[in-house]
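Components:
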Amino acid sequence: MKMIKFFILGLVLGLTVQAQANEIVVKKMTGDLKQAPLDDAIWKSVKAQSVTLMAQPMIAPRPKTTATSKVDVRAVHNGEWVAFRFEWSDTEKSEAGAVGKFSDAVAVQFPVKEGAPPPVFMGAKDMPVHIFHWRAQYQKDKEKGKPDIKDIYPNMNPDMYPMDFPDSGNVKNLTPDKKELYSHGQAAGNPQSYSKTGVDEIMAEGFGSSAIAGETHAISSAVWNKNRWSVVIARPMKIEQGSSFTPGQSSFAGFAVWQGGQDEVGSRKSVTMSWTPVKFEKE
Amino acid sequence: MAKVKNWQINREMDYVYDESRPKKQWAIIFDLNKCIACQTCTLACKTTWTSGRGQEYMFWNNVETKPYGSYPLAWDVKVLEKLGRQEWKKKEPYYGKTIFEGAEPSEKAVHFAPTDEDWMYPNNGEDDCLGNVPDGDHITLPHDKWFFYLPRTCAHCTYPACLAACPRKAIYKREEDGIVLIDQSRCKGYGECVRACPYKKSMYNPYTRVSEKCVGCYPAVEKGYQPMCVQNCIGKIRIMGFVNPPWKAREDNPVDYLIHKKMLALPYYPQLGLEPNIYYIPPIHADNSYLTQMFGPNVDDAIARYKTLREDPVAQGLLVLMGSTDRIIHSFKVSSGIAYGYDEKGDEIVSVPVTEPLITRQAFDSSRKIVRHNTP
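Structure:
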């Protein structure tokens, strides 16, 4: 019952906010976007749209207060690729790693099907959304490789790992496949347990249903400077089995930001309460 | 929230999902009067399951000294403090709040998140007794200085808080044996289970970036064998079996007998509302108010019954069956001074004399014409 109440509240809020929300115009340009460029030359002439966020209100666990109240969004496309630049204030750079530490993150979602958009809270059954989820932790993977346990805890001194022990015994000369069995997440093929490329591409049909897409297309760059994150996520305009856009088209986007330093992770996040209209410039 | 029956607090309570009891429920009983904290169980578990990267700090099975020991640091004190003072009168249902009922609307349970440092001192408080021992002090009964060892695994709860808290539904309870598992392919490492489990038996692996927990040694259990921590217990303080709720209890089931028939073994912190399935025969020489907090208001009855065990040959027989076999004992019987254990099909798997025969040897061995001393 509570869920339905929130859902209706969300819809009402959604409609009212949507009417006021300013459209994000995806500016047409000619440069290369495949490297998710951060340099100002591209972005200087693009108007930033300030998108209002609030603490995720729909399901527990949820944050008590809004950690990130707005995210500035700019977008450009060159007909083939589209890049979104996100900027928000965060006084603490959080890249996760250690036990009990979480990562700063931003996500943008698009409806998969054309027409009326699905519920803004990560879609619904048969109304999927396509999510691009950037994490500072994943960006660090991209730049420095997935950290070994010694990178996370440099002063830790484990006696030995039996799968690496070169002497005789039951476990000598293990193949990499067999060694992986000691790493349960990897052995189960969980994408979470492997080195990331910056952005996870996710399909979802409602809260808790998200699943990482097998194929990734998006590229990201990021910098944390003067208590502010600037993140660029670039993706092809057309992604089969996902969201696709053409110049001149109008669509929608939803946003979420996590502040890892404030223990935000999963459903503990700041989100948009309605879809933001997105217009892809034709010329 | 659904209304579910929790027999350990003898009332209906709120839980996130409907009541759905498994066909069988994995359970371990520990006799705390016998545990010497040798940590053989801890290492049996460690070498079997958690020798990989990111698992260095993990002890799915641990043994801590009560009242001062805790792994992670102060897990019990923090959860009790967060829940706040609650009342539970003897012979009455527990009318205080469970961690589900006491939760704020924005959370699934009353909880706290341990930091990495909290996990780093598994031997904290080891062998520390309550109270100073001044010069000239001597032992009195009941002991005014006390401690006891508390071995702990995941309790594979009937109403797991980890499962309730997982926003991705990556945690499930197996229908066939009630073992609670984290799907290693679906977990995204949000750590909600680590926060929510009041016993702190979900642990985050910083190398694989997903959370892990005690798996109840399900590959052994599926083949009719007890978990490694039970098999390797040199003090023979443990028995693993399948516990029924009281309305389905079977007197010839060893764990049902100790939990429901004799009411010797009690769940720990049942007031938290998870219906945990590790049960303890409480220590007879520890402080009653502390034990009441840990095991509920009827703990003194269990201790009184334990002290009269010598008048009960059946219970005695069952206690000697503990640690006598690696197999899971589904039913037992005691007759003519012998305790028998049977598997699921009813085939005998072990028999043990309730009292070991006493052999008195003469000091003088006439066959060899020598005198033997019992000098160690």
